[in-house]
Amino acid sequence: MKITLLTVGKTEDAYLKDGIEKYVKRLKHYTKLELIDMPELKNTKALTQEQQKSKEAELIMKKVQPLDFLVLLDEKGAELTSTQFAAYIDKRQIGSTSHIIFVVGGPYGFDASVYQRANDKLSLSRMTFSHQMVRLFFVEQLYRAYTILKGEPYHHS
């Protein structure tokens, strides 16, 4: 199964880039992972929040194919423990999912059209994190999920 993390904007802080790279490298042993950073919208001062979400939705939907399993990383999503997330990934692998796309939206969340297309919503926390940090948290949790599935000693219950 191929996994894509689709985000709006780039990671600029070196310490976050280093951390992301560390886990992306580790994940190569378990799955095919692609990170796609879509460019942030420009000249947004003249746009309402809804217009920004609509424009971001257009960018997101260009990356999604009809058979892709689309998961929004959203504050309204289900909260899972690391073990539950591992089971979630395992279920997708065992099922017929060939490509799962996890999406981090822009600063105002997702447009209604993206919610309609989504297959699922997950929340990394009830807290709010910067979009840059979410990338690191997600790839670490993905790595943790695979080590749980393989029975490796990274995760301690």
UniProtKB/TrEMBL annotation:
It comes from the Bacteria. Its EC number is 2.1.1.177. It catalyses: pseudouridine(1915) in 23S rRNA + S-adenosyl-L-methionine = N(3)-methylpseudouridine(1915) in 23S rRNA + S-adenosyl-L-homocysteine + H(+). GO terms for cellular component: cytoplasm. Its main location: cytoplasm. Homodimer. NCBIfam families: PRK00103.2-4 (NF000990). This is Ribosomal RNA large subunit methyltransferase H. The gene is rlmH.
